[in-house]
Specification:
Number of domains: 2
Largest sheet: 7 strands, mixed
Number of strands: 13
Strand content: 25-35%
Strand order of the largest sheet: 7-6-5-8-9-10-11
CATH architecture of the largest domain: 3-Layer(aba) Sandwich
Radius of gyration: 21 Å
Helix content: 25-40%
CATH superfamily of the largest domain: Formyl transferase, N-terminal domain
Shape: globular
Order of helices and strands: EHEEHEEHEHEHEHEHEEHEE
């Protein structure tokens, strides 16, 4: 895959943003290979994602940031630029369910998903062998129901030690404390086995079955202090009927979960997700 620099911008909407950015890139000989823009008429906010061929510029990211800073200040931009050749470090956190973990490990192993997994953290030891088969360190950090803080202190130190860009909760069945949510805001991704905001919390498939729903779904979202209420990255649904048992529903739901989580993680690592309050713009 050709190396590109991904420039993402959000700022108050006004005339001239696209022209100014385009002029800056072209004046340096830069070649824009992908361009996405969105103007939100409700908030009056503007969002942009440009991919610029790295080889077309006469300098690297450090100098790009220095030269672009004046434009960013002029338009009050919240912006960043990342190198597509640099793999983001993603720590996976799991409990006992393996389907989302296996799917992500396979996608990384087969080079379908470009990222680095420095380790996997779990509150159970069940999935160690399949993680270590991939040559990835596995940390078993048990949870003491009477002192959960000890678990989260250890988890936080492992995350810091491995310098993770992102934490993915691949069916990790513990609620992260507020301090971790705040410290890694916009960088913790969860898969919830429900089409949020319906059936939040525990046992959503059982809740759905009791209501006789005809569609089940899954939601990939960023984690916030409010349980299952963070900005949504991706969602999908699957049709079921009265003939489906709860076991059928869980089985079908797992297929949706791993699909949605993989799409959400891919969007995140490719810098396609821009946050604005509790909403996302996904290019």
């Amino acid at each position: 895959m050709e190396q590109v620099y991904r420039l993402t911008i959000s700022c108050p909407d006004r005339v001239g943003i696209v022209a100014k950015v385009g002029e800056f890139v072209s004046s340096q000989g830069g070649w824009i290979t992908e361009a996405n823009h969105y103007s939100d008429p409700v908030s009056g906010w503007f969002f942009m994602r440009h991919c610029i061929k790295a080889s077309s510029l006469p300098f690297g990211l450090v100098e790009f940031r220095e030269k672009f800073a004046a434009i960013a200040k002029e338009f009050s931009m919240d912006w960043q630029i990342n190198d597509s050749a640099e793999a983001k470090k993603i720590i996976l956190m799991v409990s006992k369910e393996s389907h989302c973990l296996i799917d992500l490990l396979h996608r990384v192993h087969s080079k379908e998903l470009f990222c680095e997994i420095p380790c996997v953290i779990s509150n159970h030891d069940d999935l160690r062998s399949m993680v270590e088969w991939h040559g990835i360190p596995f940390f078993h950090v048990p949870v003491d129901k009477n002192n959960k803080q000890e678990h989260f202190d250890r988890v936080n130190s492992i995350i810091a030690e491995h310098k993770a860009d992102t934490i993915v909760l691949a069916r990790y069945m513990q609620i992260l404390p507020a301090e971790i949510c705040q410290q890694y805001a916009g960088h913790v991704i969860n898969i919830h086995h429900s089409f949020l905001p319906s059936f939040a919390g525990a046992r959503p498939y059982h809740q759905a079955a009791e209501r006789g729903v005809k569609l089940i779904g899954a939601t990939c979202h960023y984690v916030t202090e409010e349980l299952d209420a963070g900005p949504i990255i991706d969602q999908d649904v699957m049709r079921i009927s009265h003939n489906d048992t709860i076991e059928d529903t869980v089985r079908l739901g797992k297929d949706v979960e791993k699909r949605v989580l993989a799409r959400g993680v891919r969007s995140h690592v490719e810098d396609r997700v821009l946050l604005h309050g509790n909403k996302t713009i996904v290019f």
